[in-house]
């Protein structure tokens, strides 16, 4: 379970977030929504440990980032909005680096990788370098790297922007499968429609504070300003 308690934070002297409180329970998905600049990415940056809280704390299965950064970070699989790949490593090497970083059993992880590579049509591209991948393919590589881990928390930043419809459907299917095994998901999105059927809770950020949060079923009632008319 991810617990965010009274988090205030931001960049250097710039305070962006004030007194953020929410939890993501095991086997559930929380959608973090809000307009441009509302603080979604800043919240994620705090949860993955890129930024340190000014006040408050973030606990992942009881472990605080400040107390044990390695144990904390190993529990997170992060898929950023902009894929971050090593230009000098092949796809195969990216998968191997991930297996080492998360101390995965190689046989189990490769069996998983093969299934994922098939789903995302990357099987014959193991020796390719990132420069040869399209934007969507780079994103798929990040998805494969995340889903070979056993991380109890997945954080996915704007997952649907560069993916084709087939890949979106496949990603949502993978998310549902993992959720059923107890994995938690924190996802940022501008379009709640895509995740509505898959998310359990939403947190609506407005100018760096939680304006509303609750069950996804109540989203339209609680946040009418983000629901398209028609
Ligand atoms: N690296 C940074 N340094 C300083 N300020 C930043 C930085 N990144 C974001 N900000 C500021 O923090 C505030 C929140 O931005 P953030 O990126 O968290 O919003 P967001 O909800 O993710 O927006 P978007 O939907 O556009 O991605 C904005 O006012 C932004 O200008």
Q: Give the strand tally.
A: 10
Overall mean confidence score, pLDDT: 93
Q: What is the overall number of helices?
A: 8
Point out poorly predicted stretches.
Answer: none
So, CATH architecture of the domain at 1-75 and 183-230? 3-Layer(aba) Sandwich
The fold-level CATH name of the domain at 1-75 and 183-230 is: Rossmann fold
Helix content: 25-40%
Q: Choose one word for the global shape.
A: globular
Order of helices and strands: EEEHEEHEHHHEHEHEEH
Radius of gyration: 18 Å
Question: What would CATH call the class of the domain at 1-75 and 183-230?
Answer: Alpha Beta
Strand content: 25-35%
Structural class: alpha/beta
| CATH superfamily label of the domain at 1-75 and 183-230 | P-loop containing nucleotide triphosphate hydrolases
Order of strands, widest sheet: 6-7-8-3-9-10
Largest sheet: 6 strands, mixed
Report how far apart the termini are.
Answer: 37 Å
| Bound small-molecule species | adenosine-5'-triphosphate
Explain the overall architecture.
- InterPro entries: AAA+_ATPase, ABC_transporter-like_ATP-bd, ABC_transporter-like_CS, ABC_Transporter_VariousFunc, P-loop_NTPase.
- There is one protein chain.
- This protein has 230 residues and is of the alpha/beta class.
- It has a domain at 1-75 and 183-230: Rossmann fold (3-Layer(aba) Sandwich), CATH 3.40.50.
- It contains eight helices and ten strands.
- It has a six-stranded mixed beta sheet with strand order 6-7-8-3-9-10, with helices on both faces. Strands 2-1-4-5 form a four-stranded antiparallel beta sheet.
- A hairpin with a 2-residue loop joins strand 1 (2-11) and strand 2 (14-24).
- Helix 3 (91-101) runs parallel beside helix 5 and helix 4 packs antiparallel against helix 5 (135-147).
- The protein binds adenosine-5'-triphosphate.
